[in-house]
Fold these 4 entries.
Entry 1:
Amino acid sequence: MVNENLVKDVVKEPYKYGFVTDIETEKISKGLNEDIIRLISTKKEEPEYLLNFRLNAFKKWQQMKEPNWAELGYEEINYQDIIYYSAPKQKEKISSLDEVDPKLLETFDKLGIPLTEQKKLTNVAVDAVFDSVSIATTFREELAEHGVIFCSISEAVKNHSDLIEKYLGSVVPATDNYFAALNSAVFSDGSFVYIPKGVACPMDLSSYFRINSGDSGQFERTLIIAEESSSVSYLEGCTAPMFDTNTLHAAVVELIALDDASIKYSTVQNWYAGNEEGVGGIFNFVTKRGKCLGNRSKISWSQVETGSAITWKYPSCLLLGEESIGEFYSVALTNNLQQADTGTKMIHIGPKTKSTIVSKGISAGHSKNSYRGLVKMGTKAIGAKNYSQCDSMLIGDQASANTFPYITSQQQNSEIEHEASTCRISEDQLFYLQSRGIEFEEAVSMMVSGFCRDVFNQLPMEFAAEADKLLALKLEGSVG
Amino acid sequence: MEIIERIKTNKLFSNPTEIQKLCLKKLQSNPLPNLKSELWRLSNKSKFSNFLDFSLNGNSTNFEFPYQNNSKNIIRLIIGENSPTNINNEDYSINELNNEELIAYIKKNLSSFDQNENWSELLNLCLSFEQNILGLRIQGTKIPPLEILSHASNDYINAKTLILIVEKNCNLDLLQINLGTENSSLSHSTYLCLEENSFVNHGMVAYGEKKSNLLNSLNVIQQQNSEYNLGTLHFKFNYARFEIRIKQSSGNARTNIKGMQITKNDEQIATYTKIEFNGPNGFLDQINKSLADDKSHAIFEGSIIVPKIAQKTDASQLSRNLLLSNHAQIDTKPQLEIIADDVKCKHGATISQLNEEELFYMRSRGLTLAEASKLQLGSFFKEIISFIPVPKGRWDLLNKLLKQD
């Protein structure tokens, strides 16, 4: 018999990224109004079109209502009580990493993201974002040799203004939804990637987001453009210190793939999730969307969501180009009082487009884990195909797992298949493993990892190993 | 929306009954459902307002069953026309509920009604005249098949309500036929209570004519060890909405549902189901099929709710859809909400067209395309139709469907 008492011994393992870096930061006053937006824009020395973009988004945001259809229970967010810009103080311009505050480098070192030359991760270029600004981007010269642009979005605004003007907001319009509008108005930094025609990016690109201040939100924006016949793999990681207040994270990610291009976007999200009573934690309201503009283009999302008090995130694909492909692989794990409402939208517009959705939800403790997804076949999606699979695993009898797949088809010559199942860790399997001398917890961890295998196989190597460990850690002691 | 105007201005009836008063009161403050909510957002707004654009009629014209009664051993009732004489014999008894019992039963249900979720029931009870509410208490075994007909009359909105209490250890075959006529609206609600150890085979066949509308709701409560089989068929309605709500009040019950809707021209037919397990060891096997042709729109939304108390529930739901035209649309949303951990739940959904390989095979054997398609459709329909408790000899539904233009 599975021991029910063990359920009560929920994770005791502390959140190991919960430290605060004591560093002098430059913050602007709390609140949100036109002046604040102008101030952010001035601080970043932005051209006028960007300021207008922000102001326009802000105007629309004021007219919008916070969405509540996901029925996530959280206290109302006071948007005037958030600092919209916070940056570690440093010299005006840094030419090399040596000039970066050592405390910052130390922070990223502690997080396992070495930025200094000697310790750089081999073959992964990193853009490190600390609160509102990007601190450093590694391997830039090597990438430049191939014509790849990888820098913070503020730099891109200065140096590649034409690309920004053309593509920013072209996938997620400023008025797309409440949180995207908020982001468009106040976004502070983020990563920009441009892969020129015919280039396969020589190394994985990665950005690492760190929230340090307790009272500031993080609003970053990522824009990735893959020109014809190019390809790139992009990784994203995030952590935050432990505060007993809730911090808002509202990001926007836009991907654009032209003819024959492919983008793989992987996320391991490990924001602070709040304590066992649900106090504190990050509110993660993210809009991620990719546009397969070109024929035979491909966008693949893979994500491992383990953190955040609340996750509200639907990485989507707009499949416009003929024979374009969208993929979504997700593992969402919730424990204690976490709530996750995540899924994807696959909008088939072009003919012969294909999409695959594999979603694995694991809920433990008193958490709530929902899959919410849309598959839509437009009138011109002749010969389009979709396959979706959503599996949920329940651990303990207090957690809930929900599935809300929305399926719409307007094209008779298309196929949609959807499957969903719910299970729990079976006693027979546990007994078998234990009878072979495998410890209880290890057996559980093996089974969880087996349950997620389909998704882990899609993650880049470094991430897959990390994700496996992360799940084991998060579930430690929570299984009954 | 004549009906809504009349509800708002309190001009619906000169002397409403107690139930009507209660429902009016609930509806007056907020007479329409929230059309943006999940339950209503896909409803075609103009068709929906068209449903309400008739004047109310309490008396119905004479109406015949769609097929001959070739066996004497069938009990047939037409709601609003003939009230049943109470039947009591050795094996079984069928008795009409008296007025107090009816009111008490309805009131009990009313108290838990939500303005939005149960809008169809509220409207129905509000519009149902006393003679159009039929309440029956059924006991015993070896009961002959029971057939109940409801219909709307031309240019009117009619409301009919059926309440059936199936007592302990009872075994019943029930067929309900809801018919629409040209330019009519029918609001129909059924309340079914299956007491312990009872067994009901329930068929619900509904079809209309040109411009007929239907708002059909079915509320079922299943007590322990009861088994409920439901086969449904909806077609030929300008606008139809079928809402099924089944509650296994203390688990340990079995539910099998096989439903189908067929839409053509510019029709819209929607099925909403909500199955709640309020106890352990519940079982559900549900399949819903939709077929959409021309410019029509078929909708299916099914939700399965498994709270913490419902351990060892075994529920599966399948939505299979055929999209036969470039201008038709199908929406389907099978959803699971699960809190109990020791459960087996799964759902699946597919949308496709007729299988080309199979068609090719049949054509290579000398069948014409039309014959081959018909054969395929026949097999698609058959699974559902064979589940409706009316033998082919009595009423050949499959033939009726395939002959439909």
Entry 2:
Amino acid sequence: MSEVTLAATTPSATAGKTPRKTGTFMPRLIVGAVLLIGWEVVVRLLAPPYVAKPSTVLMAIPGVLTDPAFQAATGNTLAAVAEGLAVALVIGTVIGLLMGRSPAFESSFRHYVNGFYAMPMIVVLPLFSLWFGYSSGTRFATIVFAAIFSIIINVADGARSVPRDYLEVARSFRSSRSSVLFGIVLPASMPYLLAGFRLAAGRALIGAVVAEFFLSIGGLGYYILYNSRSYKHAEAFVGVLLLAGFGVGFELLVFWVTKRFMPWYRRER
Amino acid sequence: MLNNAIRRHAPFWLSILVGIAIWEIAGRSTSQAFMVPFSTTMLELFRLVTSGEFIRQFLDSSQLFLTGFCVALAIGMPLGMLLARVPALRIGVEPYLMLLYATPLVALIPFILSMMGFGFAPKVLVVFLFSVFPVIYNTVEGARSIKPEMIEVARSFRSSEWALWRDVMVPYTLPYTMTGVRQAIGRALVGMIAAEFFLSSTGLGQLIMTASQNFDTAGVFASVLVIALIGVGLMRLGTAIEKHFARWRQ
């Protein structure tokens, strides 16, 4: 189980290590320019005109961003992701804490949590669509399902690794079980929770997009699908860029929160 | 000895049995359209297996999975090591790799569909895209973790670039690459199902889709159960591979 956490924490651990010297800027600029120019040239020479290339995507940006349909779709998807993540976070944290601290709970739930985590989340879509219909309810359920297990696993790992001393002090002061759980174990497993949340946010975003593809309900994913079907690739690609922005945004947010509120955690790794 | 084994495995089997019992009861007390009991699911699974339908679709999916995954490994590993070996290149490429790693790549499927159509190649591309980044990422990590002294020693013994790769780079990086392989296995499975759902419908993805479109709840449950078990099996396999190579890690 610990390898899940390890995997969860490596990317941002490196992000912290990235040298912040002036030497990094030029290579990045050059590689970026080469990638963009290469893409432009290849598409111009080899692909049909509707295929997105940097110049057309760039020109499509203002039009797309001011398009009310696009704004509505983005708001729709973001609200669904936020809602699903919030539910997954609350339920996942409670289950995770219980699993980490109670062996009975752990042994009865562990295999199911691991099993559901290992399951490619999109296979539940046909099932959920049978249950909740072709509606935003199915999307919501998919987002929660996609997000919750990485939170449970990471919180359980964190709760398991709470230093024994903390718990002994609590016991000598006769703290109640719930105040130990939420007053000591939860704060102590915060870094794990954040690592789990980072994974969960990425998975929730994927879940939302896939659900919109599958169900054809309004949102950013459907906006991309619809526009690329009508051969407006440049417009659709702006949607992809925005999704990438959200993905990176979540990463940076968690990185910033960890650095700001839990500076000791970085130093350990 | 036997007693010990029972004590160790009892909670596992108990929790599985309780789960199956809950499933059976829930399935019997709700509408068949909503949920089918465990026993019905098993009968449906038995029917799928004996009719040869399941085996055919499974082989079809395996072919897609293995092709995409092997291409990802064949490109990701050398590329990752090359990036680690040439620091300027690594620094230049790193932010873009991070960006692609954080992007929900499923969003690219509609583009792949309209550019490449319904063949086998676009599906392989999806599996490849899903699985290549963890391999590259972890390989770079591994190759960066090689102590500079190692390379200096190799240099001072005048080892050729080829020998340096063979004796230092590859052996030191492999354990990290295997962490990437474990992550990539899970993502390749997601990519496989996504490709089978949204590009041409084949394999296990088609099995689920057809059942779902026919409101055949038993069929949906049977195929979702199988895919969940495949997921668990692959995750076990990935962890085993990672552990096997982790013995090299100091």
Entry 3:
Amino acid sequence: MKHYGAKTLLKGAVLSAVAAGSFATAAIADEQFFPLQSYRVGPYAAGGTGFFGGTIDYFNLINTRDGGVNGVKLTWEEGETQYEVERGVEVYERLKGRPNIAAWNPLSVGIAYAMIDRITQDRVPLITVNHGRTDSTDGRVFPYVFPLLLNPYSETSGIINYIASKEGGEEKLKGKKIVVLYHGSPYGKETIPIYELLKEKFGYEVQQIEVPHPGNEQQAQWLAIRRYKPDYVVLRGWGVMNPVAIKTAQKTGFPVDRIIGNVWSNSEEDVIPAGDAAIGYTAITTQASGADYPVLQEIVKTVYDGGKGNLEDKKRIGSVYHNLGIVNGILNVEAVRIAQKRFGNRTLTGDEVRWGFEHLQLDPKRVEELGAKGLFHSINVTWDNHEGDGLVTFQQWDGKKWNVVSDWIAPDWKLLRPIIEKSAEAYAKEKGIKIRTSEDADKVTELQGTASSAKN
Amino acid sequence: MESFDFPFFIEVLVGGLLSGIMYSLVAIGFVLIYKTSGVLNFAQGALLLFAALTFVSLLERGVPFWITFAVTLAIMAVIGILIERTVLRPLVNKPPITLFVATLGLAYVLEGGAQLLWGTQVHGLDLGIDDVPYVVGGVFISTFDLFAAAVAASIVLLLTIVFRYTRIGLAFRAVADDQFAALAIGLKLPVIWAAVWIAAGFVALVAGLLWGARLGVQFSLSLVVLKALPVLVLGGFDSILGAIVGGLLIGASEKLAEVYLGPFFGGGIESWFAYVFALAILLIRPSGLFGQRLVERT
């Protein structure tokens, strides 16, 4: 039997204590957790892999390059939803008990709708970047929901403003015929009232035509469009509906450069399957595509060259969905960083992160500091404006890549705000929700999932 | 009152008939399996996805078109044999509902397997046929849809020849008529089932390429089965002629309904109208227009 001397034992004890100490430190290290209700299989997998891949790539960049957000590591876990509401809720139920949740990012209108009451109870933010319920822009009624950058009404206004600019001014819209071809889902129907309302203002004619889910057959709709002879068709599609629309337009002789895609009809996945029929197709976007931006270069260098890249196919780096995921990552991280300035560089509660989102103000200078100049313009979220006045731009497909064809365009927020408030107030009345004030918004809950401990 | 636009009506009708042919192509794959084994193969859409995804993935790796076609066909044949060995054979003599559920599970395995093997990315597929409209008397007709109709007609002709004039076709018909009698005269059911699954794989490949060229090769291809189901209900589950006629009727009726009745229902009615139409026929003819009527002694 081997005998150890007192010195050796002491050395061992010291080493063990140090090791135990480091373990304990690791175990209690500050972490901020992001549950991700992703979809990597199923009909919308192309969008899901790109978006969640982008967000995870950005989180990895922050962890690897900066050691987290002021020392707080970002952690996450994915749950597969296949873009189905039931599965999305199932993932929510499974992950909601995890400590240190910063925010939910489901990238699905259906899942987001199903979670509004739940996350409001939990006091954890729900981020619906570029989509979601329009009236959730009103933070007075929806304190925890953030349709960041662009809500559906702003998107509509941006598209109409773009058409006006193409025609030579708003007054030229009078008498123009516009068809809105929309996906037969709550998402697709969200903008029906606003097109009618803007019609009153600008004097255009509009016909709104539904395409049943999933949209793989559109012959009848496009024949009806051909008969109506519109000046423009706005495509409010999703998934397979988009390439089919572009191809059927060609089949029925409608010029592709008169089709304007919405923000969920603007990706490579929407045009590549349509082949040459998509050349000249234009779509709105809040973030440019391409991998030339400094933040993307850093992701390539730090994350992908380090073997931690999330996209299997590196050719997709800089694609529309990947870049949207990166912008989403930036917005989530900056909200945490802003909240830390008030509450300290530590793990935050969901409600503290909500406060961070309500002060998410990134001007073009800050966007440039983040390496994202040109990737997206700016954002200015406040306690009662949860969209943050994102600007939009338009891109045209040349058969290989998207090219930006407009300046940054501002939607008509002044016109839209009263409509949004009216809708939100009706919702508040229906649900018996007390309308918040700025003082209410400044109070935060220190404990996750409870409403017991408020701090001014 | 607005006058009736007859050329437009013809245009919608022709477009609907040509779309219906595309539905028939998918329905034929169902009929082949149902006719010989009495199984409603819910995995037909997944087979279609698997075939198209394999084809386009090989093509994108620089394999020439016809070699890609042959290799994909061979892979589909192997899958057909594997299905017979691992799914059908162990379930011999089980009730039809068991076999149906087995094909439902098979659909998930094939869909997941296809995505695991080839990824989830959306692919374009160019078969070299421009989809520019062909104008006849002011009526726009899709060149691609005409091509698809010609392909469907060729497949029906080929299957008719195989069923009527070859030994394997005769065996198919014997099994379809009475499995026990076929066994009694020495026909090997496993061989016939494997052969018919290979044939269904071939139909899935052709339909997958045509639908893939239309939609892009992506997961949604597996959802085209939803278009084939009312066709089968209408035409009958065991009749190739029924699949063709059913496809034409469903295609034309849903398009006409969408254009002329849709505005009264807020639009977007074609997806459910096809099922309502098929259901109405079912009430009159429970076996469909061309399906074999079951006569049972009580």
Entry 4:
Amino acid sequence: MKKRSKLSIFIFLFLLVSVVFPIFNMLLKIDWSDDSFQKLITSTAFKNALFNSLFVTSIATVISVSLSFFLAYTLNRTNIKHRSILKLLISLPMLIPSISHGLGLINLFGVNGIVTHFFNFNIIGSTGIILGSIIYSFPVAFLIIDDGYFYMDNNIYNAAEVLGMNKWQTFKTVTLCYLKKPLLSAFFAIFTMIFTDYGVPLAVGGKYLTLPVFLYKEVIGLLDYSKGTMIGLFLLIPALISFLFDTFFKNYGNVDGNQKYVVKENKIRDIVATIIVYLIIGFVIVLLGSFIYYAFVNNVMLDKSFSLTHWEYVSSNNLSQYVFNSIFISIMVAIVGTIIGYFSAYVTARIKGKLSKFLHLLTICTLAVPGIVLGLSYTISFNESFIYNTFVILIMVNIVHFIATPYLMAYNALLKVNQNYEVVAKTCNIPMYKIIIDVIIPCTKKTIREMMVYLFVNSMVTISAVTFLFNSKTMPLSLLINNYEGNMMLGEAAVISLIILVINAFVKIIIYVINRKEDRRKVKYEFNEEAI
Amino acid sequence: MVSLKVENLSKTYGKKTVLNNISFEVKDGEFLSILGPSGCGKTTLLKMIIGIEKPTSGEIIKNGKKITKFDSSKRKMGIVFQNYALFPNMTVLNNVSYALQLKLKNKKRAREESIKILKMVNMEEHLNKYPSELSGGQMQRVAVARTLALKPDIILFDEPMSALDADNRLVLRKELKKIQKQFNTTMIYITHDQEEAFSLSDRVMVMREGNIEQLDKPNTIFNHPKNEYVKQFVTNHLIEKVRSIERCTGIDL
């Protein structure tokens, strides 16, 4: 058998064991025999949780997507300065767990919050969940819409001008046509993200129960896996719709952003936009800054002096062990996940065939499984296997949870690499592995770096997929926030959030510097150039 | 000695027939152009000769040996693509010597030989440049040199000049012809450009919808087209050219 088909089969087997088996196994283990499903969906607790979830998610999604659209518009269609730094700052919230966003809100607006001192404000409940979810999700929506702007064919704007269209007509017929898919895509993605997240509501929801928290409490508190799975089914629905939409909805934007859009002069527009963008980013920075305040102040209520008590407490409680766990898991996920994602993409983008198409669908369908549901399926399916209670299961669940996005990065990059290299290699008698190592990997090294960072950062911040799977020896850092926050140790929780933020920012900065250096060295060869 | 023989070659995708039972021979050292509009099956034919696509039926025979089931690497053929397929992260010299080095297992000799061939294609001044620093014509020269370096029995060209401007094409055409004479390599050249096919080839094969319409010397095809299609496809284009010259110069040709 050829090496390349061996590769496809290996990847197929991996997905079979890590995705198909746990999900189906979980679904098959639901106990339908009695009327427990009937009982569940007619219970007041469930109805309330479902209503609450739909309520907060809808509001937060609309605000989050509108906000992101505004940000993307500002950064692409006004003369705002320092775009690349602003983009980096906008993505800051992605570097901390969702639960930390809730925590930040409590720091600011909680009963003893910094802002609450001046204004009477009650953040606990639906308001907090909505606000926290917006902060947690808008960077993702921003990236999707910003990408939409990047892939627009800007020549059409020139054409529209020549045809004498006014601004509103141009916006309606050109901009919205191109942004339809990214906007709807962002809408579905953000809805799913907020609907299935339990970090924010756990931290700031108080008694306001949402569906994922309901699931979490059923499984963690009452160990009722069957009921947990039934609730999980409801979490799967929006994710599934989002996935189907993304896979089958036609996208108009397919042009590489070569043609630069010329922004017209408009001082008032620029000033207003700049002020609003700075206010939004300012709020994010204040939220993150609250961690620094809480982490270094002895007691926010009684003694506001500088102190390292929280750091000392945290470090005397096995901090190094948890830091090691998190970094170890994240590095392993980054390496193994990138290898699997890259080679899956190699198979699907460069070796055509039925198996390739199937592998493509199978890999991206992991997008449709919320982390908490995936984690639950792993607990149910692997609790008797040798990998349970080890790092292996944590690494595996994170890889599956996050693989779709880096896979798509690699897929798009590999499609752009000249499709004839393999034929040249064959006729020149160059072994396939040599051409992959010597040509194809160097051509896509920037993408590979980005895949690794994505996997690393997300593994550092995730709590949903790993929450049912860790033990005292393998517990990652992010879950400590939950523990401390639950015990109202806000200073300690802030310390952990800060550590995660610093590690992730450090990794991001390293990659940023490497990429910049490479660009500046004026590398003589340019990849993805159509002519090559 | 017959260099390459194609016997009753067919290719179907489901119900669609792309190549319909075609047979022809290419003689040793011959330059054969395969001419036809897009969708006539010429690229599929090329892919089967090089070995990256399997025929539905029929045989490909090289020097008396059936090679239909051989892997591309065993066929001793080279290919030059329209988009060059140069390795962007390697210099001109490395692009040419990379495969040779693996073959000879001798870096120094591989480099020496590569330089020799790059000289022949007038690229000796650009040895340390990267592909992105070259013009289209220069890139195509490197691609030809890379293929020549391995001394294949047959070189196939897949519309190699479609991406070049008219001046460059003319220069490169002449050079290609020179190289072919120098190396006496059998060349099979795919194109939809009548002029290119006629000026380069010993023989031209006109294809339509998976069939060979005519295979003859350029002269014969031009003067005695076998059917209306060949006449239309081949001569109309040239007549158009003559007419445009007439229009420009006012001289009745």
